[in-house]
Amino acid sequence: MNPMQPDLDAFKAAFRRHAAGVAVVTAIDSTGTPVGFTATSLASLAAVPPLATFNMARSASSWPAISSTDRVVIHMLGARNRRVAEIMSGDNAARFIGDHWHMGDNGLPILDGVTTWMSGRIIERFPVHNSAVVVVQIERGAIGEDDEPLIYHERRYVRPGDIA
């Protein structure tokens, strides 16, 4: 291996082993259809004003909606939401088939039974190569029932105690 060329296999393996909390971002596309995706890159940017960030590939099936809408909902998932995480990271055409969500009074899809959801306005999109960093100013939200953490590790959604 050339020392100046990155070892992409090592990079990918390193981030598969880096356990991360699981969030789902939902929005409405230009046709009024709900879209959503799992985001393990969710981070708090500031408390005043309340800002959150997530990253996504601009080749992702949800990117056209995220690139053109100004509103999203960020959901934080717990261990009881493992199946929802699997649905929302699966086939994009099947993500909103079922009774795991409802249309919120804000006109955006809300996932049911999550530990927290927050809706807000996208205030910045920063393109970086073939990805983007998206900044959301949080405007409202709700706290659900507390739960054990759900993390993404080695391409699986697990509770911390399940990692072997």
Strand numbers in spatial order across the main sheet? 3-2-6-9-10-5-4
* CATH architecture descriptor: Roll
CATH fold group? Pnp Oxidase, Chain A
CATH class: Mainly Beta
Q: State which percent range the strand residues make up.
A: 35-45%
Domain Flavin reductase like: 15-159
Pfam families: Flavin_Reduct
Organism: Mycetocola manganoxydans
InterPro entries: Flavin_Rdtase-like_dom (IPR002563), NADH-dep_flavin_reductase (IPR050268), Split_barrel_FMN-bd (IPR012349)
Structure characterization notes:
It is a single chain. With 164 residues, the protein is mostly beta strands. It has a single domain (10-157), classed as Pnp Oxidase, Chain A (Roll). The chain is 14% helix and 42% strand. The chain is built from three helices and twelve strands. Strands 3-2-6-9-10-5-4 form a seven-stranded antiparallel β-sheet. A three-stranded antiparallel β-sheet has the order 1-11-12, with helices on one face. Strands 7-8 form a two-stranded antiparallel sheet. The longest helix is centred in the first third of the chain and has 10 residues, at 8-17.
Secondary structure layout plus pairing:
Layout (H helix, E strand, L loop, with lengths): L7 H10 L2 E2 L1 E6 L5 E6 L3 E4 L4 E7 L5 H6 L2 E6 L5 H7 L12 E3 L5 E3 L4 E13 L2 E13 L7 E3 L2 E3 L6
Antiparallel strand pairs: 1-11, 2-3, 2-6, 4-5, 5-10, 6-9, 7-8, 9-10, 11-12
Keywords: Oxidoreductase
Protein name: Flavin reductase
GO molecular function, one term: FMN binding
